[in-house]
Design brief:
Layout (H helix, E strand, L loop, with lengths): L8 H8 L17 E6 L3 E3 H12 L1 E7 L1 H5 L11 H11 L15 E6 L9 E3 L6 H12 L15
Parallel strand pairs: 1-3, 3-5
Antiparallel strand pairs: 2-4
Helix pairs in contact: 1-5
């Protein structure tokens, strides 16, 4: 939502870049030779792991966007409990209709939710929960102009 909160600045951004993969577009397969990719969220499932490895292999500059991607934040709160306990709580204890752990459709959880940089190399970190539209716009425009964004004074974890 913070990305969309850039409002009319999106027009300026898209004058410099093409959006080739996102929940906002219909592409189902991550394309080859992407210049910049913003990744949000922790690596929590086998599906996440496969996707981030594909993204990294096909991306020149990978941006870890938001505290969940940078530190694993909220998704990592499950780590002390183990996947079996998480599945039981989610699909058996908190369910009134047809309780049971699914074995199809729902991606299999990894043993631990991990920040992106623990799985693949990350080039730029943009903390925040969520990062503001101003910070995202600044980071992306700096990268598009060939500069490393200086985010130290603009961001902090959890804000």
């Amino acid at each position: 939502m913070s990305f969309l909160d850039m409002d009319e600045r999106l027009i300026a951004l898209f004058a410099k870049a093409d959006l080739v993969y996102s929940p906002l577009v219909d592409a189902k397969i991550f394309p080859e030779n992407v210049d910049i990719t913003l990744v949000e969220g922790a690596v929590s499932s086998e599906e996440d792991l496969h996707k981030i490895q594909t993204v990294r292999a096909r991306t020149k500059i990978l941006v870890s966007l938001g505290d969940c991607a940078v530190t694993a934040n909220v998704p990592a709160m499950r780590n002390p409990f183990g996947t079996r306990s998480v599945y039981e709580r989610s699909y058996c204890q908190n369910v009134t209709l047809d309780p049971g752990v699914p074995d199809q459709v729902v991606p299999r959880l990894l043993p631990y939710a991990r920040p992106v940089h623990e799985v693949v190399a990350v080039d730029v970190y943009v903390p925040g929960c969520p990062p503001s539209a101003e910070v995202i716009f600044y980071a992306v425009t700096e990268l598009l102009d060939g500069r490393q964004p200086a985010l130290g004074a603009m961001t902090r974890f959890g804000a």
